[in-house]
Design brief:
single chain; 290 residues; alpha+beta; Vcp-like ATPase, Chain A, domain 2; Fumarylacetoacetate hydrolase, domain 2; 2 domains; twelve-stranded mixed beta sheet; four-stranded antiparallel beta sheet
Length: 290
Amino acid sequence: MKIVAYRLKGRSGVGLVSADLQQVQPFDLPEAQSDLGAQALIEMQARGDTLPALLPAIALSEVQIIAPLPKPRRNIFCVGKNYFAHAKEFAGSGFDSSAKSGGDIPADPIIFTKVPESVVGPGAAIEMPVVSTAIDYEAELAVIIGRGGKGIAAKDAMAHVWGYTIVNDITARDWQSRHQQWHMGKSFDTFCPMGPWLVSADELDGTKTRVRCYVNGEERQNASTVDLIFDIPKLIETLSAGITLYPGDVIATGTPVGVGIGFKPPKYLQAGDVVRVEIDGIGSLENPVR
């Protein structure tokens, strides 16, 4: 299934997207739950509850699509340097505070987080901050946890995955370098475009899909999640070793080669640019830069 969060006539809604992507059937949810996007539905399924009734369909073109989890329950887990070519690209950029001599490829997953308030939806502007001039894009597949847990073994991890969405891990490279860690440069307002909807794991195999990114129509990134250094089960095993995962948690799995910092000179985002991320089996997430 594809679950979309939206606004219509000033009210929040969450619905099931039709197979032809032309309509949405709203779930009969109280507005307080709808304000959290798909969160309530994921939690219901984790408990084994029946999903709410579906209301009459409306045209998808009539609603304003927002992030499927517009107010994540906590920080978004992110993975750095998780494609081989990108790990080498970033380690050689001069901006990678994690790089060590001979250590371009990490031995263990590099985990950081983005604050929930950085999330915006499809079509929302990526705001250029006045404190940075090195704003970059990072197209990523994001995993949505369905059944929570702690100490989850890699062999059992995929049973804990509800599904997937797209995340653009926007980054202020100068802040990332200056502060010798990645949280601040990744967490500015509007720095986590997400969407356009969630796709359940029975409709998409996130371990074998393709991630692409375009800036003003120019292809910048194109890779398969088969090429992840640390696959989805390994990431879930690593995170849950000491942290309890909960339904609705988001794990952005890392970005492929082709980010702006990898070009010489760097191709940073500029006001007026349009960034589009596409992932096979999900769709596209497009945001202007302002």
